[in-house]
Design brief:
The complex is a heterotrimer. Chain B contains twelve helices and eight strands. By secondary structure, chain B is an alpha/beta fold. Chain B folds into two domains: about 40 residues, no CATH class; about 210 residues, P-loop containing nucleotide triphosphate hydrolases (Rossmann fold). Classes of the chains: A alpha/beta, B alpha/beta, C alpha/beta. Strand 2 of chain A pairs parallel with strand 3 of chain B, so a sheet runs across the interface. The structure holds guanosine-5'-triphosphate and magnesium ion.
Chain lengths: ~140, ~300, ~550
Amino acid sequence: MAGRSRKYRVLIGKPGLDGHDRGAKILARALRDAGFEAVYTGIRRTADEIAAAAVQEDVSAVGLSSLSGAHLRLFPAVVEALKQRGAGDIPVLGGGVIPDEDLAALKQAGIVEVYTPGTPLAQVVEAFENACDRHQKGRSGK
Amino acid sequence: MNREDLLQGLKGRDPRAIARAISLVEDGDPLADAILGSLDESRIEQALVLGMTGPPGAGKSTLTDQIIAGYRARSQRIGVIAIDPSSAISGGAFLGDRIRMMRHALDSDVIVRSMATRGRLGGLCAAAGAAVRILASSGCSPVIIETVGVGQSEMDIIRLADVTTLVLAPGLGDDIQAMKAGLLEVADILVVNKADCVGAETLAMDMEAVARESRDKGGSTEVCMTVASEGRGIAELMQTVEALEKQYRQGGEHARRRQHAYDLEVLDWALELLRPELLEKIAKSGSNRTGDPRLKAAGILRQI
Amino acid sequence: MAEHPKAREWEEKVLKKSLHRFPERKEKFTHHGGEEVPRVACPESIDAPYVEKLGFPGQYPFTRGVQPTMYRGRFWTMRQYAGFSNAAESNKRYRYLLEHGTTGLSVAFDLPTQIGYDSDDPMSVGEVGKVGVAIDSLADMEVLFDRIPLDTVSTSMTINASASVLLAMYVAVAEKQGVPGEKIQGTIQNDILKEYVARGTYIFPPRPSLRIITDIFQWCSKHTPAFNTISISGYHIREAGSTAVQEVAFTLANGIAYVQAALDAGMELDSFARRLSFFFNASSDLLEEVAKFRAARRLWARIMKERFSAAKPSSMMLRFHTQTAGNTLTAQQIDNNVVRVTLQALAAVLGGTQSLHTNSRDEALALPTEDSVRTALRTQQVIAYESGVGDSVDPLAGSYFIEQLTDGIEAQASELIDTIDRAGGVVAAIEDGFVQRQIENSAYDYQQEIERGERVVVGVNQFQTDEKVRPPLLRIDPEVERAQVQRLKALRESRDNGQVQAALAKLGEAARSEANLMPAILEAVRSYATLGEICRVMRDAFGEFRDAG
Ligand SMILES: Nc1nc2c(ncn2[C@@H]2O[C@H](COP(=O)(O)OP(=O)(O)OP(=O)(O)O)[C@@H](O)[C@H]2O)c(=O)[nH]1
Ligand SMILES: [Mg+2]
């Protein structure tokens, strides 16, 4: 459409009990400043709540943050919950205090990208851009 | 999701289809016609559209959350369109209203949709109106529109509502002054939220005065006090909303407002639909800057 | 220096008494050549402005420290925060730390414990034993302090929303060891207000939470007089991204709210004020941090004296624990973190902290390993025993730079507190989201500066290297959760459930009345009611707070 490019909608969620939301909020703001529409869920959400919100908001990507070391349980649970709701096509990205050695397991479980502290925001934003691009292409392909 | 799945899904109240439909219409996708053409007009007619506006932080989302709980207790399906401003610089938005409504996230009869204003000159009424219609058509009633009452575009959206509440809270003095002129006029119910905080009584007295003034002029403005964070005053507020709705439906005000909203949406859509063609014509007319812009515009319109 | 009457008065009245009660570490403190290190360096001539702004250590306004001789008497408490997986593992780590010279324990609890969920609660999935030790009942607490004498060790517990329950468990374990309440020493964090703005482990809404806190104040003033009943924490506010000024302002504003709540509950100011303690962050801007600590001390002293009319000097003293800044640790080139921690720890010591936790090099990646915890502790020991900065009190005083910065931070923080007062106090400012927004904006601005390269983070946005070796990390075996759940199940089967139900019912009654909650909680704890069960009763009575975004 001329005059208006499509906006990417994304959802930032905090699964589990970890209340440190500085990273999640900074990311949501950075995404806003990069032109995304970023929905934020607040802290202490279950995987299922995050998935349900992602469906209602029709987002093109979900970002998760956890700093409590529970990522191996919580992130895959969100991927699973999205599938359950027929939204397995929505890519999930993760971030937090995550040791390198967990990366393989998370990728295996369907998390498309994982970021640890110190990653430049621009790089994370770009990953969202790419994930949304691929998601949109997949959609229009169908 | 293809066209058939989408339309089928809409009929079947599939949350994904509903969510997709709103995005497609909002993005101006060609499928919009098919989607909006398939809606259940009688449901839309019956649904209550409730406007919720007020200054930032007054408690609109918290109140909405409580109203959701109230209607769910009566097993009514309910929809929410929560509108937040887009950043003027980046065009992006931080959509945070949903945070306060997350306890309903797993309830399939509560549909919450966040929407950004996208800095549109027009088009917001069209997009928000369409979202309301999609939700109402899927069986939601009421459909609540939450929007920060600051700018002109928000004032316009609020005209989509059958009943409008203006949510105020003590301690936001300056904002209220600034709003008095515009929003107090469109509000049917003045909600003094945060009644647990200092200054609520004074604010309520001020609002009573405003309401009296409006009633003297034949209006029907009501005042309610709530503590949204504790769920106090919600039942009374809901009763007031319903009584007004009934009164408006019987007295013809409802039809008048719907007509007004309808016209507003038609105008908005007309401009939206014209926009691509206009932009193309302007681009084609080359880079000469001869003549007055208004005269040029008139010329282009004659060609259409 | 003894010419000024004030100076003489201080020497006669304050210093002598203190020296008598707490002799200094050495007879004489000297440099290598034998020159003596002054106890407190002062200006040539002591004038009124000096006395008013700086005064002498151990004396109002306490800018130069809360004790007359500071570290010449005794070093700060080296207190390493630790706790992970289950009670038995954590107990082992505590005994290891005590053997290596830590002088106080600091217990980290896992998130379910902090938020009042049992390990088998659906909300606890994946979190059990992760960021701290899982405690479900008194049985776990008994294991946690097995063979640790609670009459001599001081224990700090990072626990807030469920502090009343964990404190009750601690008291009950002490009882079993034969240690009376009067003998136990330590601190519970118990600072719920900062949880709403920065850390997120709240359970109940602010108002009932404040009631629980004042109940604790009251109960402890009678039964555990040597226990610090709150540690008002700026640490997490700073971690969430605030500036140094905001850290001071919001922390002291929270402090004001607690004092007011206790006064409203009918307590005598001087009966609880000396049991208030504080907890600050030591970040990397070395000199600003030193000034921050000094400014916080002076500002609190003024608040207590002028606003609350405190009479006793001990009520005006801001005593604080410090932890080095977790958010400055990088996952890249982790050895650099040792250097960061050293600078931050130095700031805390130069700023006059009462106790200190130094972070470990690997904490941006996972929980610290035993080796890196030891290095962190050694860092404190090097500062204490080798650097000599503890041999003279408040050694940076009088530097134009430090004094200007101290004045500036005090003035700005004071202004921010005024703003909060005008908004109806800190509880209103939190409910309204004002405090949260201020912190978020500072955090975002700071991050933007790093992104733009205006702020250099060594090894992250400059001086990067390719790293191949992976440091060994401490992992929490997922088995811990399963085993803990089993343990809990066994407890539920073996205890006297009739007694548990009776105790819980009593607690429910107490919660709905005006009665002090502590006796009922203590009784429930003794009956081996679980933390989750106890908190459920309180949740039903008080409601739950939901994220304010
Ligand atoms: N004390 C008190 N606080 C309330 C009440 N209602 C809402 N709040 C608090 O006020 C703050 C703002 O509430 P929201 O519901 O987000 O307000 P809003 O009008 O939706 O705000 P925006 O969407 O940002 O414009 C939150 O921290 C709420 O918890 C109330 O009745 N009493
Ligand atoms: Mg809102």
